[in-house]
Amino acid sequence: MIRVLLVHDACLVRSVLAEWLRGEQPLDVDDTPWRGAAARVRSFGPDVCAADLDCADGQGVPPLGDLCPPGTGGRPPALVVLAQANRPGLLKRAAEAGALGFVDKAGSPDRLVRAIRSVARRERFVDDSLGFGFLKAAQMPLTRRELSVLSLAAAGASIAEIAGSLHLSYGTVRNYMASITRKTGARNRVDAIRISRGEGWV
Amino acid sequence: MIRVLLVHDACLVRSVLAEWLRGEQPLDVDDTPWRGAAARVRSFGPDVCAADLDCADGQGVPPLGDLCPPGTGGRPPALVVLAQANRPGLLKRAAEAGALGFVDKAGSPDRLVRAIRSVARRERFVDDSLGFGFLKAAQMPLTRRELSVLSLAAAGASIAEIAGSLHLSYGTVRNYMASITRKTGARNRVDAIRISRGEGWV
């Protein structure tokens, strides 16, 4: 019996998906929204976490680290994510968080069951249709520092506020923003934020 | 037998939800992503469209008008939407599109079935937990013109481009942006866009 924790923010969809998974032997399924997932990992002790990368607000980055807490003793759960090829930033973060399974939300639900079974055996499972997303993730042109600047800008901070937060000069932050705008192929700063948010980078 | 067209962008979730609804007699369920929904309404001729207001990209506004095409002869389908209280802009658009049913995605799936049955009888169905969202929708402070300016800005247009599109002067668009920033309680233009997108206004 594989113990699966399903992580998805919309209760209505999550309950139906959990019920459907329970019909697929041998799965013992619990479910939770992203908020509260860390506590549920500790109390339920799943073999596998199956998590939707899209958060309730449709933007922002889910707290993937909550699903694989370090140093709890014992093996952390294997991670399967439900993902979209057009959000490479989230694919990259999931890979960095150690996800073993990548299921395309545009695919069939049977793929999710197969992925859960694979990662429970600690075997990798990747939907081919996500390939282009991984390619885009690999080609991500922004540096880590540029991403920090962009994240603050996307959260609504002004150039001066970003400079203050990151201990940089106003001119340096302006230069970073110009470089970000150029590299993302955007028309201006607002457009760069729109593009990067849509792709799941910030 | 009620003919239901389920509209949701993620195929994986949509298939499971459609299968679950088919288990609830007397529902005859077909399903589609937002893209292609207009054609499916014509070919399937549903009594009820049940549509998730959140699009695949997690932002932007779904084409609600596609579900209730005018002048097709016969009665257009009744509309139920799956919604979130924290996206008042989408609630308002659904109300304007003539939706009869409003189901909270944070609630139980049984509510969706009840809503479908209600609106099939052309009776209104509204989840109480969405009340605060409707209140926020009613309190929306931006004018129609300000929303047009904001939509273009959110799509990445510069002040000059917005002025060109709307046949306004540069200074007028700047004044609109300042007024939008003040009314939304934002720190600056980028922050105003972030807030408005999150709430589903643009």
Automatic annotation (TrEMBL), chains A, B:
SMART domains the record matches: HTH_LUXR (SM00421)
GO MF annotations, alphabetized: DNA binding
Pfam assignment, any one: GerE
Keywords: DNA-binding, Phosphoprotein, Transcription, Transcription regulation
The Response regulatory domain, residue ranges: 3-120
Residue span(s) of domain HTH luxR-type: 135-200
Ribosomal protein as UniProt keyword: no
Keyword set includes Electron transport: no
Modification type 4-aspartylphosphate: residues: D52
Protein name (record): Uncharacterized protein
